[in-house]
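Slide 14.
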Amino acid sequence: METKHIVLNVVFFGCFFLLQYVSGQTEPSYCFRFTWLGPEYDNTSTLLNTTCSEYLDDIRAVGVPCRTPFVVTYDGSPPDLDYLLDNYRDQVTCRRTKSQVCAKFTYSFNNEVQNATYMCTRAYTADRGYETGGCFKQRVDAHDVEVCLCESGRDPCNGASSFKISLVLITILACLKFVLI
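Slide 15: predicted structure.
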């Protein structure tokens, strides 16, 4: 009986540490950090050394977040976040501190996305205080503005990552199956 108890404790702690590793809590946390300039920009656009101030002046935007680097796709479609992460991780991510969340600001006009900015930031709402997750929408002039917030692990959560969720779920199920046997 005592041997079974020791084995269960070893399995429990092993599963706990494996889950910590898989969920990314033992590694630094990252968010995407860049501005996708939208469908009006493609591989023929000339940006040279454009700054956020120049870009915002050009589109006559006030109060719109902007983070370099700028991302432009071949045909103006939204960027492939997995490709960016695999090939440009150091350029398009920021290390999230404990007081920050990952955010994605999306600006749409007539139900079409005009641009999107990804960043590490702090989020606070007057009615609920500090925010750590969820999406919030509002209309500003003729634009729909959506801000989505999340906390992430090694891979940014302000994009899409079903692999990580699947890996965590598989780890939990494997540990439960072993303990229940």
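Speaker note: The beta strands are 29-32, 34-36, 70-71, 93-96, 101-109, 112-121, 124-125, 129-130, 134-140, 143-150.
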